[in-house]
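User: Run a structure prediction on this.
Assistant: Running it now.
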Amino acid sequence: MIKARASTVLLWLRERWLETILTLGLVAMFAGIGITAYGFLPEPPPPTPTPGLPDTVDGELAYEHVLAQLAFGPRPTGSEANLLTGDYIVEQLEKQGWSVEEQPFTYQGVAGRNIIGRSGEGPVAIIGAHYDTRRRADKDSDPAKQSEPVLGANDGASGAAVLLELARALDKDALENEVWLTFFDAEDNGHLDGWEYLAGSRFMAQELLVQPEMVVIADMIGDADQQVYWERNSTPELLDRLWGIAADLGYQNFFIPEYRWPILDDHTPFLERGIPAADLIDFDYPYYHTTQDTADKVSPESLERVGRVLEVMLEGKP
């Protein structure tokens, strides 16, 4: 009896093999649509702890991310080096268990890409940095070098490196916000070839579907001679909070609670939307937009100080 029933089933399948395959395919397709549409995608796998690494932000590890970016060469938007750097950032975020979104855009006919790593719950906190570099060293003291590209160890790589080290060091269970580690493209070519500054951050600000609680930008913060002053356009309450944390950490000689200059930076498009925002930036960097912006000008200690301030702010604990 069992053999007879098995033979009948096999005969039925043989005669209707095409219908069977199509039915199974449709089931799989609709299952996939349901998973995608209703947000049932699995969470990224947890990162694999590496024995011996510190639990908090480490300047030497951040500096390794600076060197990794510089190894690609100058990284202006649209270049192969910029594309490879973006891929490196995505790889590092995913390695640390962050949910990654790539936000492509086009500016002046050139393809750009913002990259966002998300983790945590609560009001959104955007921690941003740009990863592109300036296509020409127009401020170089040597006129012969002003047409050369900028390597961007501090102006580009330093802020991105701090964010990548935060991706490793942050305790996701302790986060008081839904944190978006955001890497902006097309920030640094204003006044060249008809470009404006901040193309990537403006695109993101225009496309936002949520109202972040705060935005904090880290830009040019790796200078070995670090002096981070208040930026005049930044939200005062955020400045007080950040510099208060720095003082508690013993960084008062490097985070100086005095106003210097107003700066057009990646916090600007968010301020224009009424979002509290602050810019961590070391104004007085003599190698800005020159061919001298190289790895030897960046200090692991400077990277660590900025990373630790952001880490404490996001985790709510020293």
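Residues 48 and 66 are 22 Å apart (CA to CA).
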